[in-house]
Amino acid sequence: MRNDWLWLVRKNLTLILRDRKSGLLHLILPIAGVLLSLLLYGNTNSGTLHIGIANNDGDVSIAADAADYLSRLEKVEVTMLDEAKLKEKIASREIDSGVVFPAGFSEKLKHGEAPAADIVSIRGAQVTAYVGAMLNEYLGNTAAIAQTSASNPELFDRLYEDFAHSGYQVSSKTLRDSSGKKDVTYQAIGFLILFMLTSSYSLTEFMSKERENRTFLRMMSSPVSSRIYVLANVTVNAIVLAVQIVLTLIFMEVVLGIDAGVPFGELTAILFLFALAAIGLSLLIVSFSSSNAASAALSNLVITPTCLLSGCFFPTDIMPDAVRRISSFLPQRWLLDSLDKLQGGERLSDLPLNLAILVAFAAAFALIAAYRLSRKDNTGQFV
Amino acid sequence: MNVLDIRNVTKTFGDFAAVDNMSLSVREGEIFGFLGANGAGKSTTIHMVSSLLKATKGDIEILGKNIAKFPRFAKANIGIVPQDLAIYEQLTAYENVRFFAGLYGLRGSLLQERTEEALEFVGLGDKAKSFPKSFSGGMKRRLNIACAIAHRPKLIIMDEPTVGIDPHSRNYILQSVRKLNEMGCTIIYTSHYMEEVEEICTRIAIVDHGKIIAEGTKEQLKAIVTDTKEIWIGVRSEEGVGIEALRSIPGIVSARIDDGMIKLQSKAEINNLNEIIQQLIRSRADIRSVEEQAPNLESVFLTLTGRNLRD
Ligand SMILES: Nc1ncnc2c1ncn2[C@@H]1O[C@H](COP(=O)(O)OP(=O)(O)O)[C@@H](O)[C@H]1O
Ligand SMILES: [Mg+2]
């Protein structure tokens, strides 16, 4: 059994190494993805942070003052926009971050509630956190005034007037020290996810190719079992994806010197967990397709759109709530979420839920695929 | 000892029975011919014997062991040469044979020996390091055979190994079938070419619509044909021969024209040669030869089914 398995693994590796296209697909593309990410984000490192603000709370309001406060910060440039325009500019990367003050924001604040302004960033958690912190510095003081004045609106107005015109200290912290590099990493991983799925699908689909060129038929007429055959394919798939992950990370961190903000081992580990989910998904796609063409069509239908939905190319912040909810059903979302948290300083051991969900995805996909494939065998679809 | 026993085997696809209650035995040392038109159910039968398809009904035994109960044993003793090529274009001839032989547990120097031997056997010894893409159709077919014999199976099943190849490769393949048989292999040879089955097979089964309609040595089969005779008439030109008119002559069972040769099948007891010649003269055919053929498998098939094997 083990002997058969190794024999098949060896054959598959030989075939992959012989195929020039596969080198391009599995290794060159992810590296190109890193370079592209560098192009998109690498040079904005020391620049100005562009913030778009949509104020739905009126021009004479605490929200308007808060916007004014942000605009006076060093290295921050504020543009006032309406909400639709804001989302558009974020999508086109003309601004780095957007803040939306909902109507009634000031009123709530005055009454001691803590209303939420919506902060959306193209650059992931780092920028959102920064803008949020700056905003809180201002609004926190306002909230304190509201607390003091209890429910006395006149007292609040007087105190707030004083505070707003007191020429407050403008923070001059240097902005976004390492966030640029983290953005590059985040985007590079976003691309890597797409390429991992593509590679994994192409390696799984290899089994359909073997059906088509009849070598599968020959293998199945030998004592080798179909289970060992699938297992060998999965093994090779995992090996290729592992090489892909390690090579991409080495290229990014060692060759280009981009600090991912996450320890190498932890990043590799979580990506490998995702690789298992990717293999499961590919098996699922192939097992649900009756032909080569059908599985190719299905993979096109599944891979790129789910990557889009889960935020591999754009942050999910700019997407409608419904879409965001859908993305929790996608393994890519959970990998990106883990990455976000790891970059935010958490450790892998702090994320048992994320790890468990990725493993669950891999297991569920593989089980369904195994069931489908075994049913196919029983009805004699070998030939 | 029987190498293969097929007992009341049926295979249905939907409600269509591709193999219909078939029973068949192949004895050790035979070259067993499996003759039938396209779609008769030959490949389906072979796929069931090699465990690629499950029989809907019935039992199959290899060397006395049921293949459903002992699949590994059955598979280890069979070598299958598929109807369509089953080789890797990205592997050399040597690597192809080595890989497939390795599936049967061979390793190391024994594997190397058997691989070289199999390539030598099909006449590709000097092409071991070449990739199949540089091969002719016939060479690829020979490689296809080498991949099935390197593990030295007791039973070799060849599914139409000579379809669409040059005469040289075809002769080579027929010769190697004989040689394999002399070396002790039992062979099932599937074909819809009656000439080659007649040439090499020691026993023949004729399949039609999933059923075996006749079985025996070629002499036994030809003995079935006592009521028809075959008349071949060579003509200079096929134009205006009037095949329809020939068909309407009393006693004629079938008539066709094939490369300047009019091939007629007629009831044996009716003497209609005069009418045939007269009809041809009337249609101004330029007759070059007339001969009565001994019965062949083609006429056996025709007698049994009323159709030609090639139709
Ligand atoms: N997987 C299948 N599904 C449906 N019909 C099939 C399948 N395989 C073969 N058949 C049908 O069964 C019949 C016998 O096919 P086959 O065994 O390939 O014939 P042969 O090899 O004698 O030419 C054909 O009519 C073919 O169309
Ligand atoms: Mg066939």
TrEMBL record, chain A:
Domain of life the protein comes from: Bacteria
Alphabetized Gene3D superfamilies for the sequence: abc type-2 transporter like domain
Residue ranges occupied by any ABC transmembrane type-2 domain in the UniProt entry: 144-376
One Gene Ontology term, aspect cellular component: ATP-binding cassette (ABC) transporter complex
Key word Transmembrane present: yes
TM spans (from-to): 21-41, 184-207, 228-252, 264-286, 298-316, 351-371
Entry-linked PROSITE patterns: ABC_TM2 (PS51012)
Keywords, alphabetical: Cell membrane, Membrane, Transmembrane, Transmembrane helix, Transport
Any one GO MF annotation of this record: ABC-type transporter activity
Places the protein is found: Cell membrane
Transmembrane helix among keywords: yes
Membrane topology: Multi-pass membrane protein
Pfam families hit by this protein: ABC2_membrane_3 (PF12698)
Family membership: Belongs to the ABC-2 integral membrane protein family.
Protein name, UniProt field: Transport permease protein
Native source species: Cohnella fermenti
Automatic annotation (TrEMBL), chain B:
Keywords: ATP-binding, Coiled coil, Nucleotide-binding, Transport
Coiled-coil region: 263-293
Gene3D superfamilies assigned: P-loop containing nucleotide triphosphate hydrolases (3.40.50.300)
Domain ABC transporter: 4-234
Molecular function terms, GO-annotated: ATP binding; ATP hydrolysis activity
InterPro entries: AAA+_ATPase (IPR003593), ABC_transporter-like_ATP-bd (IPR003439), ABC_transporter-like_CS (IPR017871), DrrA1/2-like_C (IPR025302), P-loop_NTPase (IPR027417)
Organism superkingdom: Bacteria
Designated name of the protein: ABC transporter ATP-binding protein
Originating species: Cohnella fermenti
